[in-house]
């Protein structure tokens, strides 16, 4: 979630990042969240054991969505993305809880 984005837009972007070919993008986001200094393409590929094409497509999508940046040979989460992901998920869970309460669940 970037500064100034409302929860709905941020949730939509996150949903987009995690739908088509979600497993690879989700794995890359998770991997980069645990490596704040970033990883090279080779390190990502060796860790996830996916094809070059699969990793490249996922990384390009994450870059276009504004979640990942490439600095030299390192891919890393853009500043604020880790916290943004947690804020979006937290807000979405709050909205879900409120909706469930309205429905008496």
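^ structure tokens above, recovered residues below v
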């Amino acid at each position: 979630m970037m500064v100034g984005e409302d929860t709905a837009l941020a949730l939509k972007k996150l949903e987009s990042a995690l739908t088509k070919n979600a497993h690879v993008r989700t794995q890359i986001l998770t991997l980069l969240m645990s490596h704040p200094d970033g990883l090279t393409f080779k390190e990502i590929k060796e860790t996830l054991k996916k094809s070059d094409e699969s990793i490249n497509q996922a990384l390009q999508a994450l870059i276009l969505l504004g979640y990942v940046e490439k600095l030299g040979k390192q891919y890393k989460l853009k500043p604020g993305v880790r916290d943004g992901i947690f804020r979006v998920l937290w807000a979405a869970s709050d909205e879900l809880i409120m909706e469930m309460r309205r429905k008496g669940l």
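The radius of gyration is 15 Å.
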